[in-house]
Design a protein that fits this description.
With 221 residues, this protein is mainly beta. The chain contains 1 helix and 11 strands. The chain has one helix at residues 2-23; strands spanning 81-91, 94-103, 109-112, 116-120, 130-133, 151-154, 159-167, 178-186, 194-205, 209-212, 216-218. Strands 1, 2, 5, 7, 10 and 11 form a 6-stranded mixed beta sheet that branches. Strands 4-8-9 form a 3-stranded antiparallel beta sheet, with no helix packed on it. A two-stranded antiparallel ribbon has the order 3-6. A hairpin with a 2-residue loop joins strand 1 and strand 2. The longest helix is centred in the first third of the chain and has 22 residues, at 2-23.
């Protein structure tokens, strides 16, 4: 009786152990080995570059301001004389302006009487104007414009002037006002024509009339 119980207990223990062994979870499979980085050998030592010499920076040169042109530095035109503006006046619509003829050559320059004049617009085309000696009906009497002509000789560096007079008057709104921006002058018969660009216009309105005087000698400036 006792032997049967021992055999049953032994058989039950064996069965229980087998059941437990069958229930064990198998271990997970080992991960496949990944790619391995190649092992680099020690890099060969490169020879060091010699230090490059530092180039000194060049100093920046300041730009030189342009010098204004001086009248005396301009080339002397053919004929040995040049024109320049010599001042003016404007009052109550009556205009007065003077031009100077400078002997920029090396020889004496003879003058007598009046210059021959032409008034030009911005594009250099002649404007419609009646230019005559004296006041030419613009006004009564103006000093310099009504002077008597005489003969003179300009030494090198000397100059002579003549004056112009006109009115800036608009008498007819249907007629465009006229402005002259250049003067073309022949100082004496047979001389080359001279042209001068004006800084202030000859604003004739629509009067169409200009008077001018003779050459008057003056000292060079």
């Amino acid at each position: 009786m006792i032997a049967k119980r021992w055999v049953r207990g032994l058989v039950g223990g064996v069965i229980a152990v087998g059941a437990l062994a069958g229930c064990e979870v198998p271990p997970p499979p080992e991960a496949a080995p990944g790619p391995t980085a190649p092992v680099r050998g020690p890099s060969a030592s490169r020879p060091a570059r010699p230090p490059q010499p530092v180039q000194p920076s060049q100093p920046v040169q300041p730009s030189q301001p342009e010098r204004p042109s001086q009248p005396g530095s301009q080339p002397c035109p053919e004929g040995g004389v040049r024109l320049r503006e010599a001042g003016g006046d404007a009052a109550m619509g009556l205009r007065l302006a003077s031009l100077a003829l400078v002997n920029c050559g090396t020889e004496p320059y003879a003058l007598e009487g009046y210059p021959e004049l032409r008034v030009l617009d911005r594009q250099g085309a002649p404007v419609e104007v009646s230019a005559g000696t004296g006041t030419n009906g613009v006004t009564t009497s103006v000093t310099g414009v009504e002077a008597a002509p005489r003969r003179m000789t300009l030494r090198p560096g000397a100059e002579a002037t003549f004056s112009m007079v006109w009115r800036n008057t608009v008498t007819d709104v249907t007629v465009p006002a006229v402005e002259g921006w250049e003067i073309e002058a022949v100082p004496r018969p047979g001389a080359p024509r001279l042209r001068l660009r004006l800084t202030q216009p000859i604003d004739l309105g629509n009067t169409g009339r200009l008077g001018y005087g003779p050459w008057i000698e003056r000292d060079a400036r």
